[in-house]
Amino acid sequence: MKGLKKCSRSAQDMDPRLVILSRGPGLYSTKQLVKEAEKEGWAVRVVDPMKLTVLIDESGGRIYYRGWPLECEAIIPRIGHSITRRGVSIVRQFERMGVIVINQSDGIANSRDKLVACQLMAEAGVPVPITANVGAWEDTVRAVNQVGGTPCVIKSNEGTHGSGVFLAHTEQQARQLVYQMLERDMRPLVQEYIQESHGQDVRALVVGGKVVAAMRRKAHGSEFRSNFHLGGSVEPVEISDRYAEIACTAANKLGLDLAGVDMLESRNGPLVLEVNSSPGLEGIESVVGEGFVAAEVARLLNRRLEESLSDSGAANNTEMTEAGSEAFGIYD
Ligand SMILES: Nc1ncnc2c1ncn2[C@@H]1O[C@H](COP(=O)(O)OP(=O)(O)O)[C@@H](O)[C@H]1O
Ligand SMILES: [Mg+2]
Fold it and tell me: Whose CA is nearest to atom 16 of ligand 1?
């Protein structure tokens, strides 16, 4: 075990326990997080958040997995977009139980709502593209004019992997897209199109308040969306202090310890497009080296554990003992 105190529980010393909440134990990111945390001395289990039972009571509540109380010192939630609501409530429960959580529930919820994220970032002085949330399709053209006219970007407030993002070349197209999204309860955003950044953006990985890695993402062919999931490619990039500072401020304002901050390179400098609370590690680690970002996350867990041990002293530690230690061994 590397540089990490064992958690003293009852008579014996045990490795600290980490639960990764993920529905994809075979995914690259999950596997790297498991591997690097184990190297740092954590006992790691991957648990499907949808299979957990949450009990709420006045004394902080409990979480059960297959009939056993799930006890651990830390969790890393990797909550997919389709289960955001339930995932966030489960993460909140772990917070109530005093577990170290990377990322916290508020941060995840803030980052999943593009409008809320934009509002919070603008409040913190983080530059963002001019963005309008349109409530009635008749207002589309007014919104398009506010963001600088066509072409403009129309996107769903809660989309991911580029799936709800469109480039509207005419007012008519913009109106149609907004209309269709409103019909499907999708909360459309009309956004200034940053032409000079067409088909590319910069992603900075922020871990514990520091940029630990960055890459430039380039779209496939004539595509304007640079998402890795749409076949985009990645390459190394050196980012300036200004980009790094903006990325850290954005992650911090949203309340995220681990964040993938996407920035467009506009002619006036960085504009933060969105902040991802479960950033995929495959693309970035193909640039900076396998396990590199996951190892930073594992070291952040170590720091948090050391802090919580010195903050709460032995009292908290002993409390965690009784119910959890035998139960942990049965997870798959
Ligand atoms: N306003 C914009 N100007 C230029 N390109 C954009 C703009 N908005 C989105 N894009 C491109 O589309 C991609 C996906 O947009 P994004 O808002 O991040 O949606 P998602 O959450 O689906 O990834 C971005 O990575 C970027 O390449
Ligand atoms: Mg994105």
Answer: 162
